[in-house]
Q: What sequence folds into this?
């Protein structure tokens, strides 16, 4: 089958690789119809991780079930499904508690697993024609058959739940004001989620015009940090008080000024200044235990200079970590089906799998409006004999 394979820093290629197969009775094989490129894929693409050549990328995956293991009970051939980027067992202590992003079973020695990502287990990614899904009864979310909402549903694999997770970590409530730092795909989803949760004002901080325009289109207040201190701008909008809540949707690859070196702690420190005393911060933005491409020796070890004293002085609370997608994806799917959410506004490009190398290059350089790319290894959606026209079960 064809798949997007990492060859080294700033180089991926579409290559022929071995087809996946059923390895355990609880597996299914999914023919991928959509797989999105994520900002965290760029960390591997840029050579900033321990990723070795040969990894098949892709942790945001949707498709049609083609083959079903003997122990699978709720998923059938022909079902249209989307998979959380978290690979999870469903029965360990963390999964039972709802922390599926930190499964203790799927990746021994590490809390959590994912498709096609370095250190996240032996699970090949889905930027390919086919994908093996383990623990399929737990990991597959069924969708209505056909092609409707394809670019909405693919975002259920990661960025829509991750943006929502940022707001959940901060306990965003109706009527509150929220500052979201970063208006990339996850930041836009966090701003969107804050509005869905009833926030009265949402500020989206970025410097990329296309991103700020998208934020304004959904009802957020764009804050261009290229035009001045974002903390000051937001306080002007809040009578000097600051916001009730804040979300870091950037992570460690942050810059205070265009063209300057990265400042991995700049967003956290800005949020500490932005959020009012006793407020809360949600941090779904990626921070890593080690980054060989970081600008200083401490940051290379994942050690950041954060204003903990000010955090303490203001009585701020902080929630971190990757999204437990299973906690949110069913409800967010149903909001899409009810017409109350359309997250696909972030999708800038839909391309065939063969154009993945060019898409990675342009997305990495933020050129030509590349904000969120969905790859389509297959667009054909065959109907099996007797297949229903809507999802079977929930």
A:
């Amino acid at each position: 089958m064809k798949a997007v394979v990492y060859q080294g820093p700033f180089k991926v290629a579409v290559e022929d690789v071995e087809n996946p197969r059923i390895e355990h009775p609880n597996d299914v094989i999914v023919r991928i119809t959509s797989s999105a490129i994520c900002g965290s894929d760029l960390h591997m693409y840029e050579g900033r991780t321990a990723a070795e050549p040969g990894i098949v990328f892709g942790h945001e995956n949707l498709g049609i079930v083609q083959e079903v293991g003997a122990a699978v009970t709720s998923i059938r051939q022909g079902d249209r499904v989307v998979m959380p980027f978290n690979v999870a067992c469903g029965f360990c202590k963390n999964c039972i508690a709802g922390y599926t992003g930190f499964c203790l079973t799927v990746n021994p020695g590490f809390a959590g697993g994912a498709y096609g990502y370095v250190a996240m287990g032996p699970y090949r990614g889905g930027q390919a024609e086919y994908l093996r899904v383990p623990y399929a009864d737990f990991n597959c979310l069924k969708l209505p058959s056909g092609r409707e909402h394809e670019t909405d549903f693919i975002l259920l694999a990661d960025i829509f739940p991750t943006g929502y997770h940022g707001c959940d970590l901060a306990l965003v409530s109706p009527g509150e004001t929220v500052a979201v730092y970063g208006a990339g795909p996850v930041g836009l989803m966090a701003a969107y989620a804050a509005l869905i949760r009833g926030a009265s004002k949402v500020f989206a901080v970025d410097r990329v015009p296309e991103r700020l325009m998208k934020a304004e289109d959904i009802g957020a207040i764009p804050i261009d940090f290229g035009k001045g201190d974002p903390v000051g701008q937001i306080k002007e909008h809040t009578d000097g008080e600051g916001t009730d809540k804040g979300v870091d949707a950037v992570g460690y690859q942050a810059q205070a000024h265009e063209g300057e070196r990265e400042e991995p702690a700049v967003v956290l420190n800005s949020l500490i200044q932005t959020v009012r005393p006793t407020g809360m911060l949600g941090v779904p933005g990626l921070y890593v235990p080690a980054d060989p491409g970081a600008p200083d020796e401490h940051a290379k070890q994942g050690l950041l200079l954060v204003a903990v004293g000010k955090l303490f002085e203001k009585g701020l609370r902080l929630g971190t970590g990757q999204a437990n997608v299973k906690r949110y994806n069913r409800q967010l799917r149903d909001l899409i089906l009810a017409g109350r959410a359309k997250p696909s506004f972030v999708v800038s490009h839909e391309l065939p799998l063969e154009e993945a190398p060019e898409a990675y290059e342009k997305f990495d350089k933020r050129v030509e409006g590349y904000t969120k790319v969905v790859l389509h290894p297959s667009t054909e959606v065959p109907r099996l004999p007797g297949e229903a026209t809507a999802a079977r079960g929930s």
